[in-house]
């Protein structure tokens, strides 16, 4: 990863003549716009370090302002991604048609030589990761947590079930959930997600994602479906419930959030007492019925077997209270656990899962790259990006 000095020199460049006025489609704020490098340089003050609002595995994000006053976030992708201009434009063309109140809108893009930039709307209130794990911040109350869970679930359900072709995010995590000033959730960073044109499993040779959130079958074999996102969403629900990070890399893998929470969720759902599982900072100020629904959604989402995890639309209905929790168990055969799939009948066993997670932890600890939220400048110990497996 570049140092701040290297980043600044890359985008500062020589002095340029006065910039021409923006093209009409930019000035009118159309959702699909092509920007020139100079237009984005002007909007971001020359890509100065003081306008950096995030950085991560893909590159840097700068805040900018268009001539019409619209605030934007300009994501400059690292060179050498291997993506051709035609492929990039085709993907942007599809993503630019995606519109949902719980998804960050893509305003436009820029291709300048080998440089690729994505231009998003600016969301002002940082990320779920920042507000949930940041030091010295007010405790996020239960109603806010539930609202964020439901909003992000709706956005992800739209990507999975209402887009054509369907879109698999591949990197659902607290750092990619942006919040507006009303703490409404907006799913970000799906601009380079995987487009799925059929119902078949996609096998990727390049596993992308964040350690602690990766679905075990995707991390181990590259098998990618919408259910990979569902697992990651379940981990994020556990963060909202417990206030804990997905994994503490200083501890043994047995202390990961998923492993720690599984028996506690089973016990809590059996006896209706969620106090040991719930974030102590909530001081027991939560609605038990709403907590039961969120815990049930989290438990179903992190099943070892991908095919037994619910769809995101089922999770939305469960969180809203519009369906029985049994709706989360569609596809689970009678005799198997109503919340957790049986390790004896799972197509991905507990022992295999533990072995793979141990391997991935060793890889993450050995990595020198520590990407943080793409849209918020704070780093976190659990957000190691796995590149090439």
Count structural domains: 2
CATH architecture of the largest domain: Orthogonal Bundle
Radius of gyration: 21 Å
Give me the CATH superfamily of the largest domain: Transferase(Phosphotransferase) domain 1
Estimate percent helicity: 25-40%
Q: Compute the number of strand runs.
A: 12
Oligomeric form of this entry? single chain
DSSP strand content: 5-15%
Q: What is the name of the CATH class of the largest domain?
A: Mainly Alpha
How are the strands of the largest sheet arranged? Answer: 1-5-6-4-3-2
Q: Characterize the main sheet.
A: 6 strands, mixed
> pLDDT under 50 segments (min length 5)?
1-31, 333-348, 363-372, 378-389
What's the rounded overall pLDDT mean? 77
Task: Briefly note the CATH topology name of the largest domain.
Answer: Transferase(Phosphotransferase), domain 1
Distance between the termini: 19 Å
Q: Figure out the total of helices.
A: 12
Overall spatial form: globular
Quickly give the structural class. alpha+beta
> What is the element string, with H for helices and E for strands?
HHEHEEEHEEHHEEEEEHEHHHHH
Biased composition (Pro residues): 15-24
Biased composition (Polar residues): 1-12
Family: Belongs to the protein kinase superfamily.
Subcellular location: Cell membrane
Describe this structure in words.
It catalyses: L-threonyl-[protein] + ATP = O-phospho-L-threonyl-[protein] + ADP + H(+); L-seryl-[protein] + ATP = O-phospho-L-seryl-[protein] + ADP + H(+). ATP binds at residue 75. Belongs to the protein kinase superfamily. This protein is an alpha+beta fold and 389 residues long. The chain has two domains: 4-121, Phosphorylase Kinase, domain 1, CATH 3.30.200; 128-359, Transferase(Phosphotransferase) domain 1 (Transferase(Phosphotransferase), domain 1, Orthogonal Bundle). The protein has twelve helices and twelve strands. The strands form four sheets. It has a six-stranded mixed beta sheet, with helices on both faces. A two-stranded antiparallel sheet has the order 7-10. A hairpin with a 5-residue loop joins strand 8 (177-179) and strand 9 (185-187). Helix 6 runs antiparallel to helix 11 (312-320). The radius of gyration is 21 Å and the shape is globular. The relative contact order is 0.12. Mean pLDDT is 77; it is low at 1-31, 333-348, 363-372 and 378-389.
